[in-house]
Amino acid sequence: MKKKLVAVLLTAAMAVSMVACTGGNTPAETTPETTEPETKVEETVEAEPVEEVSEDAPAGEVVGDDTVKVWVADAVVDFTRNQIEEFKAANPDYAGFNFVVEAVGEGDAASNMITDVTAGADIFGFAQDQLARLVAAGAIEEVAPENIDALSTQNDAGAVAAAKVGDKFYAYPMTSDNGYFLYYDKSVVKDPSTLEGIIADCEAAGKNFYMDLTGWYQVAFFFGTGCTMTYDSDDQGNFTKANVDYDSEKGLVALKEMIELASSPSFQPGSGAGTAVDYAAIIDGTWDASTVKDFLGDNYACAKLPTFTGSDGNTYQMSGFGGFKLLGVKPQTDEAKLACCDALALYLTSEDVQLARYNEVGWGPSNINAQNSDAVKADEALSALAEQLAFTIPQGQYPGDYWTRAEALAGDVQDAFKTADDDTLKAALTAFQADLESYAQ
Q1: Does domain 67-177+323-394 correspond to CATH entry 3.40.190.10?
Q2: 41-92: pLDDT as tens digits
Q3: Cα separation of 247 and 186, whole Å?
Q4: Which neighbouring-strand residues pair with 229?
Q5: What is the distance of C-alpha 419 from the center of its chain?
Q6: CATH class for domain 181-319+399-438?
């Protein structure tokens, strides 16, 4: 068995260097404690502690070496409790451990672990953009070597990449269901494969096309034309270098396409189906599937993001950020407990459990076989997202100032840039890139 960390607060030495994002999948990068506002994860439930699997350890307290504390989102607490009972029945070697399940959402688990590793969970669910922070803080253990083959071969490529920092696996993929794709009214949009065709159909029908052009969504254009925006960081999580080439011809093509979209009379800024009106197309995520389905009724349809023809005459596939839920294991001083934690993490992310989790709460599996099950394949939203995730990168951590700056760019796209010439747009990209680079200095 691999050597374990004795001090759980030991800072892991690492340098995460992201590669260019041209529609492929790359590992997540580190960041200070900032959270991208568009990431769709369930937040911590501030309520009374949930019922535990074991009555031997109160929720929220530091527990003994014979207790395995598990943090999951509130929506899957009961599900996880039931699955642990099945795990115990199938693995009598771990019958001596007590299991405690607490409700902590993926958006808060990493910060809570980093704040107090000792009191944190032994197994915890978290959003993939938090992985590098956890590694840098010594709050997450490497995946057990004997589990790596199953993890890397049974899950989709995006989820596998999201579970790694550099060449090392630190987490168990649990879902592939956080990203955006196209919902459309099939009675209006005849061909969802091209952005030009979608816009033309919406304009002809007098219907709206919704897309948010701020930071999380605007990379669909920049990454789609082959631009790069990643950050290197040191072992403390400080940004040391920005790898950005928005100030380029491909950046200009992306910016001009955003302006062209925003200039359409059918365009409406936004991605929330709950507030969208009179639309025939909207770029949104699985979290709004039921809302869109209720609105479109029998004309409900989904597809990956479309291609677009750039100002240079070339065709580009819209890209974007992809998101995944992962399970992590805290470093342990007790080898037997560590073995139990690794076995349980592998079990909770296995094909059967991922499929059962989808059937109960609708979370999209990362396991390839589960994705190909009849139930999941019949889910139009998840099928469209799965297709789109092949053209995205897992979202890592970015400087908090990036999201504010990208929002300002979106405002200019929808206003001042509509009448700007190429020189003005190039100057804007130069300034934008300079700002992005300054965040790592």
Answers
A1: yes
A2: 444 443 333 344 443 433 344 445 799 999 999 999 999 999 999 999 999 9
A3: 38
A4: 244
A5: 35
A6: alpha beta
